[in-house]
């Protein structure tokens, strides 16, 4: 049953949300607007003494404005709204369409906690970033899985992440009356798949048809290779009003330790995320937000130009990807060439004779293989079975995930280890 929410939007999925009844909603945005208009002595609401005032560049108490910190440092939400508004073809209000979070992790957590209710189903595409499933569960929902299935690579070519595709009929069959949301992660961790416009349009059409939300995890949005295009599902027809777009400074500016993330979306969805954020984290450290705001401002000015960090980063990582692919092939593994991210999955079936299987073991084979590889070869990777739901883990335990966002010395050391291993294997 569809109904109008307080913004006048005709949308059943959000108005159906009962679980925050009685919770404090973020009232700060209306206060901010009044403050902007009437300029009261606002520092009476905040601490004006201490180390912040004198020392920290970008600290909001220093500038006398700490009032928007709950939703994000003013300089950051402003530039995020400008930057992504342009890319999404959408005018974004920094106060109501942007929320800054502690990394994309908190952004995801807010999505599930805010918008998934007891009994709701959430569609997750396998392989998936492993926190989605527990986050759905913690929100009281049920995960429904659909797999990207590999088709054979073109003769003489290595398999690409683009060879992994959804079966349209299978995907359509996962949408039921209970479906609240689908999680889309493009470029995908761990596979590196960059969903095509056609694939996105198919997903978008299903979301519109079934009145379903989309949590679009786009943390690797700038890491796309071979001229591939990152499509933002929120920019497709009918999707802005039902999509939360998630980003991460950690992936965008290679600053994992800063732990700054963000969500972009319509106010009628973000207001529920603000409730979760306001009553858990409240606000994120200002220094990292200020630094990120400056980095985004610089990118805004050099967007698409050769000195853009985003342009340079993907060029550099594409070369590193190709280097690791060559090393793995020379060593006897079968890499799946990723179109995006800085991860790469490789098939190690050729090495199975080195580590015998233990059929009744609870531990997936890829996990045992990696433990053996660490001890005997000094190489580490992540088991791909960790990115599958329990019933499907065994079908993918011949794959491991490497990361190629590494110093040249590390890539060279990996190349040497793989070469040596291959020589030992062939008895040379
Ligand atoms: C697909 C995906 N989403 C979200 C995150 C979390 O990002 P952050 O480090 O900003 O919390 C990661 C981190 O590895 C990721 O791979």
Automatic annotation (TrEMBL):
GO terms of molecular function: cysteine-S-conjugate beta-lyase activity; glutamine-phenylpyruvate transaminase activity; kynurenine-oxoglutarate transaminase activity; pyridoxal phosphate binding
Localization, UniProt: Cytoplasm, Cytosol
Record has Translocase as a keyword: no
Pathway of action: Amino-acid degradation; L-kynurenine degradation; kynurenate from L-kynurenine: step 1/2
A GO CC term attached to the entry: cytosol
Keywords: Aminotransferase, Cytoplasm, Lyase, Pyridoxal phosphate, Transferase
Similarity annotation: Belongs to the class-I pyridoxal-phosphate-dependent aminotransferase family.
Name under which the protein is recorded: Kynurenine--oxoglutarate transaminase 1
């Amino acid at each position: 049953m569809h109904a109008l929410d307080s913004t006048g939007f005709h949308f059943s999925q959000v108005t159906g949300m009962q679980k925050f009844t009685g919770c404090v909603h973020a009232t700060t945005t209306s206060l901010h607007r009044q403050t902007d208009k009437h300029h009261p002595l606002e520092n009476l609401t905040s601490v004006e003494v201490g180390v912040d005032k004198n020392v920290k560049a970008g600290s909001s108490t220093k500038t006398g404005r700490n009032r928007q910190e709950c939703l994000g440092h003013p300089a950051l939400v402003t530039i995020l709204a400008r930057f992504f508004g342009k890319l999404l073809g959408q005018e974004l209000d920094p106060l109501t369409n942007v929320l800054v979070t502690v990394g994309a992790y908190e952004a995801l957590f807010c999505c599930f906690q805010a918008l998934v209710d007891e009994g709701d189903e959430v569609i997750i595409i396998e392989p998936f970033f492993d926190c989605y499933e527990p986050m759905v569960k913690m929100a009281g929902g049920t995960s429904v899985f659909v797999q990207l299935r590999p088709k054979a690579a073109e003769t003489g070519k290595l398999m690409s992440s683009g060879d992994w595709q959804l079966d349209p009929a299978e995907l359509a069959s996962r949408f039921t009356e209970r479906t609240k949301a689908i999680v889309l992660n493009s470029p995908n961790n761990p596979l590196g798949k960059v969903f095509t416009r056609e694939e996105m349009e198919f997903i978008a059409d299903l979301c519109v048809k079934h009145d379903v939300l989309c949590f679009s995890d786009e943390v690797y949005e700038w890491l796309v290779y071979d001229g591939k295009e990152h499509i933002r599902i929120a920019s497709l027809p009918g999707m802005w009003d039902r999509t939360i777009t998630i980003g991460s400074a950690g992936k965008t500016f290679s600053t994992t330790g800063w732990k700054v993330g963000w969500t972009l979306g319509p106010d009628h969805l973000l207001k529920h995320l603000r409730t979760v954020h306001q009553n858990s984290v409240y606000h994120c450290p200002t220094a990292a937000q200020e630094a990120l705001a400056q980095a985004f401002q610089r990118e805004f000015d050099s967007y698409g130009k050769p000195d853009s960090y985003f342009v340079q980063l993907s060029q550099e990582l594409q070369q590193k990807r190709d280097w690791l692919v060559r090393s793995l092939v020379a060593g006897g593994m079968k890499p799946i060439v990723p179109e995006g991210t800085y991860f790469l999955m490789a098939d190690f079936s050729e090495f199975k004779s080195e580590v015998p299987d233990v059929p009744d073991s609870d531990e997936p084979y890829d996990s045992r293989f990696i433990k053996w590889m660490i001890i005997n070869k000094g190489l580490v990777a992540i088991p791909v079975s960790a990115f599958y739901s329990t019933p499907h883990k065994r079908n993918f335990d011949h794959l491991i995930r490497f990361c190629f966002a590494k110093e040249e010395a590390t890539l060279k050391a990996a190349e040497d280890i793989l070469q040596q291993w291959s020589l030992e294997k062939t008895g040379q």
